[in-house]
Amino acid sequence: MDKQKLEYFKQYSEIIPNFDAFMESLEKEQPYWMRVNTLKIGEEELIERLENKGFKLEKYKNLNAYKIVVMPVKHPGATVEHSLGYYYIQDLSSMAPVLVLNPQKGEKILDMAAAPGSKTTMIAELMREGTIVANDVNFNRLKSLGGNLERLGITNVIITKKDAKSGNFGIKFDKILLDAPCSGEGTIRKNPWGFRAVNDREHKMLARSQKIMLKNASKHLKNGGIIVYSTCTFNPWENESVVEYGIENLGLKPIHFDLPIPHLKGVEEWRGERYENSEYYKRIYPHLEDTGGMFIAVLKKE
Amino acid sequence: MQFLKKNDYGKYFVDRFGIPEEIIEKYTFWVRGKRVWAFSGEFIDVKDIEVLGIKALSLGRTPKPSTAFLRVIGKYAKKNVVNLDKEKALKFLEGEDIEGNFDVEQGYVIVKSNNDILGCGLYKGSLINQIPKKYRYEDTWL
């Protein structure tokens, strides 16, 4: 790993517990994780097929989540089974926001920044029946989303191409996932070459966009509904600060939630900003379960 | 371009492949241009819909079913299904045509291998490959 890129993360030494372990984890290659598309095949059947081909897979707790310990191909998606849509490569940390969203049969769910569709397809797999509006502003990324829906055989999704900050989605939803575009610090292990360190000004600009998206999400939420706000970055301006904006200015209420993946609570203070509700938020760090990073909060509209 | 609801297209799958009506009734069918989309959710009138469900048919002289949708409903088919052994299935996934006589009607068929629905083929004396390039087996795969 590029030393300069690692150096960038030292700004978080005071907010990330066990910081040395965190820094060490960034230098380690991140294992692949996958989940079975149970809309098409049973978990046991697929795992047996892949293991017969030389894969070694470790089931994580009682979740439909498997760490790929050994793979006999260069990329874990280079199999007939992947092409048939029997599984999806997705980091455990990326599954977390959907587990928290807890999609139920018959719900109407908006995935505001959906492409390339990891979380959309997981929502569909968990809810079985219901309706998902999957939105993204980027045309090329929408093509990946459409491709993934086709491959996985998911038929209950409406794709739209709107700006999440201002788009009108026509109705109010039971649940909204706002997995907001962010500086992506938590993906550095997965994609060290693609990671670009951003400066304070860019973090602030991203935070501004994220707040506007949260405001638009709030407009499209039913009373009693929830927004799961998540990012794959560590910077508190893009996380705690955005959620606290929603609590203070949009009338949203933070909710306690369970998460069966190791995590720590939110940050209490960062560069002079104090976050009153940090105990409601959850942060997944790479050194906790050998994954990427993720921030998650749940906000309710009453 | 708007999506127009035309559930009559569901009948194609009942007639051609013997898919039970109660399976097809789970979907609504929507036309946009020369394509028909199958959607199993509740329609929400969001303006500027890009995609509604997944592509089920391309319209031409005869409708052509999509591999993606056949992979969803193909397990319920009762006719016009070709079952290939493992070796031929791999050749089919590589994009090859398969020689041989199969007990199916001429026209579009569902190609499977055991419980795997591989996708769409066109039978006219031999099995002409209709698998889209994006789903074709590559020699670096397992």
Topology:
The complex is a heterodimer of chains A (302) and B (142).
Chain A: H1 3-8, H2 19-27, E1 33-36, H3 43-52, E2 56-59, E3 66-70, H4 80-83, E4 87-89, H5 92-101, E5 108-111, H6 118-127, E6 131-135, H7 139-152, E7 157-160, E8 173-179, H8 200-219, E9 221-231, H9 240-249, E10 252-254, E11 264-265, E12 269-270, E13 273-274, E14 282-284, H10 286-289, E15 294-301
Parallel strand pairs in A: 5-6, 5-8, 6-7, 8-9
Antiparallel strand pairs in A: 1-3, 1-4, 2-3, 9-15, 10-15, 11-14, 12-13, 14-15
Chain B: E1 4-5, H1 10-17, H2 21-24, E2 28-32, E3 35-39, E4 49-52, E5 54-58, E6 64-65, H3 67-73, E7 81-83, H4 86-93, E8 107-113, E9 116-123, E10 127-129
Parallel strand pairs in B: 7-8
Antiparallel strand pairs in B: 1-2, 2-3, 3-5, 5-6, 8-9, 9-10
Task: Sum this structure up briefly.
By secondary structure, chain A is of the alpha/beta class.
Overview of the structural elements:
The complex is a heterodimer of chains A (302) and B (142). Chain A is an alpha/beta fold. Chain A has ten helices and 15 strands. In chain A, strands 5, 6, 7, 8, 9, 10, 11, 14 and 15 form a nine-stranded mixed beta sheet that branches. Chain A has a four-stranded antiparallel beta sheet with strand order 2-3-1-4, with helices on one face. In chain A, helix 8 crosses helix 9 (240-249). The longest helix of chain A is centred in the last third of the chain and has 20 residues, at 200-219. Chain B has 142 residues and is of the alpha+beta class. Helix content of chain B is 19%, strand content 31%. Chain B has four helices and ten strands. Chain B has a five-stranded antiparallel beta sheet with strand order 1-2-3-5-6. Chain A binds chain B through residues 40, 53-54, 72-74, 78-80, 83-85, 108, 129-133, 142, 146-147, 149-151, 153-162, 168-171, and chain B through 27, 38-42, 44-55, 68-69, 71-72, 90, 93, 116-118, 134-135, 137-138, 140-142.
